[in-house]
Design brief:
The complex is a heterodimer of chains A (112) and B (119). Helices cover 0% and strands 48% of the residues of chain A. Chain A has strands at residues 4-7, 10-13, 19-25, 38-43, 50-54, 58-59, 67-72, 75-80, 89-95, 102-103, 107-111. In chain A, strands 2, 4, 5, 6, 9, 10 and 11 form a 7-stranded mixed beta sheet that branches. In chain A, strands 1-3-8-7 form a 4-stranded antiparallel beta sheet, with no helix packed on it. In chain A, strand 7 (67-72) and strand 8 (75-80) form a beta hairpin. Chain B is built from no helices and 11 strands. Chain B has strands spanning 3-7, 11-12, 18-25, 34-41, 45-52, 58-60, 68-73, 78-83, 92-99, 108-109, 113-117. In chain B, a hairpin with a 3-residue loop joins strand 4 (34-41) and strand 5. The chains are: A mainly beta (112), B mainly beta (119). Chain A binds chain B through residues 1, 31, 35, 37, 39, 41, 48-51, 54-55, 60, 92, 94, 96-97, 99-106, and chain B through 45-48, 59, 61-63, 95, 100-107, 109-112.
């Protein structure tokens, strides 16, 4: 299975400051169809995960534009330009290029 | 708005079969899209179980192959999961989801249901 590794494990951030989460895969994520299937999910406390971004950088409907995704190959990043209180939770990256689909172990974002 | 709701026993004995159903509202399961199951545990984090199309075409995680059966009931607008020969390692919160593009992950999730495996 493709191993997806996130860092940091815990991310304390001051309100209004930027945040960045890294996601690295053990294999390249370019699919045979030419697309890169790397998605980001947010899981707020007590809630189900919610998809934020798909195919590296495509924001889902309703996702604030302070969230952005970038990267290629095996290295990807989720950035929050200005952290708000509602952003507290655990963030996961997921690769869909190789079967089985696998998730990173999560990054817990908290407010300092 | 698409809504999904898991149902099933919260406690299953070791070696028995875990059975869950996901009721879908706001969207017909036979209108396209794959439907999937994902579980979450402290030990393994988020783990993809499998996905199924309304025609019955299904794919399950190789780590669970042989133990997973999925099905779709279009008359009831729901889909189901059976996991046989469960052990304590199968204890988790089980989510059902709509896969708005299998490879990009779920766009709608159920609330999740906690299943514990214990005698």
């Amino acid at each position: 299975d493709v191993v997806v590794t996130q860092s940091p494990v815990s991310l304390p951030v001051t309100l209004g400051q930027p945040a960045s989460i890294s996601c690295r895969s053990s294999q390249g994520l370019v699919h045979s169809d030419g697309n890169t299937y790397l998605s980001w999910f947010q899981q707020r406390p007590g809630q189900s995960p919610r998809r934020l971004i798909s195919q590296v950088s495509n924001r889902d409907s309703g996702v604030p534009d302070r969230f952005s995704g970038s990267g290629s190959g095996t290295d990807f990043t989720l950035k929050i330009s200005r952290v708000e209180a509602e952003d507290v939770g655990i963030y996961y990256c997921m690769q869909g290029t190789h079967w089985p689909i696998t998730f990173g172990q999560g990054t817990r974002l908290e407010i300092k | 708005q698409v809504q999904l709701q898991e149902s099933g026993p919260g406690l299953v004995k070791p070696s028995e079969t875990l059975s869950l159903t996901c009721a879908v509202s706001g969207y017909s399961v036979n209108r396209g899209y794959y439907w999937g199951w994902i579980r979450q545990s402290p030990a393994k984090g988020l783990e993809w179980i499998g996905s199924i199309y309304w025609t019955g075409s299904a794919y399950s995680n190789p780590s669970l192959t042989g133990r997973v059966t999925m099905s779709v009931d279009t008359s009831k607008n729901q889909f189901s999961l059976k996991l046989t020969s469960v052990t304590a390692a199968d204890s988790a919160v089980y989510y059902c989801a709509r896969l708005g593009g299998v490879l990009i992950g779920p766009d709608f999730w159920g609330l999740g249901t906690l299943v514990s495996v214990s005698s």
